[in-house]
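Hello, quick one for you while I still have it in my head. No rush at all, and the record is pasted right below.
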Amino acid sequence: MELVPDDAGAPPDLAGGVLLAPAVAFANIGELALDALIASLGAARVARLDDANVLAVVGNNAFTPDPPGLLATALELYSVPGSRLFLLQQRAPAIPGRQAALAADLAGWAQRAGLAHVVLLCGLDAQYRREQQLEGSQLRFLAAGGGGQQQQAPAAAGGAAAAAAAAEAAAAGGASGSSGGTAAGGAGAPLAAACQAAGLLALEPDVEATEREVHGLLPPWPQLDALAGVGLAATLLATFAAEGDNVADALALAAAALGALRGAGSLPASGGEGQQQLRVPCSWAGLYGRSFDRSLF
């Protein structure tokens, strides 16, 4: 993975920072949430990244029509003023069969850059919820410890039974990199506590086991395993969702991420009272077609 600074300037200093990135997976919720956060926080693009495992894509500037001619590409790095928070937007999926290679590249680059913590945003398949999860908050978090503890991918270690056992061991604070929503100290501990304060629930071990059994080769699981393998603290922020118009799901996840990052000290507290109003970028106009009268339903 190669970083190309904007305007041929010096590369950004990422040492000790927190990186927020989407896991390009179910319902595109991670990418939508990143778009909303970039627009709302006034983040400035500082670099583009290039990786041979990501499909090439180019399009119009996603956030403003000015200046004209500014293009969006597959991997873009943004910096939030007044903080050590960086946002990596990914606008194209990995080439089929190269998810693990992309995850390894991301983890290696993040480690070399000296990042302290990686936060992944994504959607989880709503059809795998249990009955008790159908009501209440759909937001979940999963913290993975650093310190070189590598998380074994349960799906590759013997099917559903192994996945359930590994997830339960993680929830109990075992040797696995995943910790069932609470990091055993280290860089992830403040964010895990802030996630709970922001209303996110710890991802249930049985849901993690099912996700790994069914979608184990797809994001966010290769990313979490690769980050654990290089000893980087990582946290997954996710929401259950179904395919369709996922703007509301993405905004809810973005708002929760914003609250958790402020609570963990990765962002300064907002100036006014109440929560910061999220902005949607201009590129979302017509994202899911024309609006309709929801009172019909």
The two ends are 47 Å apart (CA to CA).
